[in-house]
């Protein structure tokens, strides 16, 4: 099974990126059997505006602080998701 990780700031808005991501990621998971993961930043458990396939795994990491701390938490958060 092919794995795919999307990284985005958030998916709780009603804008174009969120809509395209919901359609594309859901299709890849449902129609083509991809193991799709979506990683959001600072989403704090907010629900997506558009529906996503139940086959998609959602992840959220909290990144805050000065640029060095932000980068470190961003890097470590991605590594934790990828290493699962």
Describe this structure in words.
With 84 residues, this protein is α/β, with parallel strands linked by helices. It has one domain: Rossmann fold, CATH 3.40.50.2000. The protein has two helices and three strands. A three-stranded parallel beta sheet has the order 1-2-3, sandwiched between helices. Strand 1, helix 1 and strand 2 form a beta-alpha-beta unit. The relative contact order is 0.21.
CATH superfamily: Glycogen Phosphorylase B
Q: Count the helices. How many?
A: 2
The assigned structural class equals alpha/beta
CATH architecture assignment: 3-Layer(aba) Sandwich
Oligomer: single chain
Q: Averaged pLDDT, please? A: 92
Biggest pleated sheet: 3 strands, parallel
Order of helices and strands: EHEEH
For the secondary structure, the number of strands is: 3
Instruction: Label the overall shape.
Output: globular
Please write the CATH class name. Alpha Beta
As a whole number of angstroms, the C-alpha radius of gyration is 13 Å
Strand content: 15-25%
Between the first and last Cα atoms, what is the distance in angstroms? Answer: 15 Å
Strand order of the largest sheet: 1-2-3
Contiguous uncertain segments of 5+ residues: none
Number of domains: 1
Helical content class: 25-40%
């Amino acid at each position: 099974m092919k794995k795919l990780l999307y990284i985005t700031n958030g998916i709780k808005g009603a804008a174009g990126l969120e809509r395209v991501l919901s359609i594309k990621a859901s299709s890849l998971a449902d129609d083509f059997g991809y193991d799709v993961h979506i990683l959001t930043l600072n989403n704090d458990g907010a629900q997506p505006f558009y529906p996503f396939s139940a086959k998609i795994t959602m992840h959220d990491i909290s990144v805050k602080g000065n640029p060095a701390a932000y980068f470190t938490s961003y890097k470590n958060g991605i590594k934790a998701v990828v290493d699962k």
